[in-house]
Amino acid sequence: MLNKKKIHIVDTTLRDGSHAMMHRYTEAQVTAIAAGLERVGVDFIELSHGDGISGSSINYGFSAVSELDLLKAASTVVKNAILTVLLIPGVGTIDDLKKAQECGAKAVRVATHVTEADVA
Question: What GO molecular function terms would the record report (predicted)?
Answer without folding.
Answer: catalytic activity
